[in-house]
Amino acid sequence: MGKNVIVTGAARGIGKAIALRLAADGHDVAVNDIAANRDEVEAVAQEIRAAGRRSAALIADVSDEDAVNGLVAETANALGSLDVMIANAGIAQVRPLLEVSVADWDRMMAVNLRGTFLSYQAAAEHMIKQGNGGKIIGAASIVAYRPFALLGPYSASKWAVRGLTQAAAMEWAKYGITVNAYCPGIVGTAMWELIDEKLAESEGLRKGQAIAKYSDLIHLGRVSVPEDVASYVSYLASPDSDYMTGQSVMIDGGIQFS
Ligand code: NAD
């Protein structure tokens, strides 16, 4: 049975792959990202409609409380309900902790942690009113278990997403809402292009060499593609995961073991 889903940060990368995979699974999908990516958001929504599912292209900055509440309300208006929230939006920054400014720190926490909190909270409020339970899914990371040097605030934000996911799972179980997170490892997206470029700069490597160096850690022997993550999120969004809550599971090709 198809559900009504929001995917935040779905203009590209992992979020886009999740949105397309969930549409292929038979769900209707509200595609969200920031205003700067309006064309890409609309293109993903069009691709979903072309595949025969309903979709809405909804611009909202997940760090903004009113915008997130609006996103949930607009999704319910456009699709009829909200059954699954995927709080995927996130940003990364490569910078030594000694050079991280308060503004850097606040921006990271505003998007990755406050944005996830607001997405979880707005979805849960709506799902509780609907009275049919629901599924809330967040983007953590391998760094929620083992931080990367030079990604300190990012690692802290994702570690906190893991904690938030556990607390939310405990508080909302009584409403039939499950809360889980996915922890990608090294996925070849725009985010890792940036990480590679900045790590290479700081380690005296050429573009492409940092990701190659870190990829040596992957036991399955290849960098991840967004579809690796999307297939796990497909499971989390399905009734097959109904007895699972509070978990943050690594989909990293075997870099780190929980
Ligand atoms: P990406 O940069 O390719 O895509 C992230 C999307 O989120 C972008 O379209 C961006 O515009 C959007 N976004 C950023 N700030 C936003 C905001 N305030 N409101 C709404 N949308 C916003 O990154 P990705 O690699 O696809 O990562 C997706 C998620 O997975 C992120 O949370 C990231 O931290 C996490 N993750 C990625 C990797 C990886 O290796 N790429 C590893 C672990 C975790």
Automatic annotation (TrEMBL):
Transmembrane segments: none annotated. InterPro entries: NAD(P)-bd_dom_sf, Sc_DH/Rdtase_CS, SDR_fam. It holds the Pfam family adh_short. PANTHER family: 3-OXOACYL-(ACYL-CARRIER-PROTEIN) REDUCTASE, SHORT-CHAIN DEHYDROGENASES/REDUCTASES FAMILY MEMBER. Belongs to the short-chain dehydrogenases/reductases (SDR) family. This is Acetoin reductase. It comes from Amycolatopsis ultiminotia.
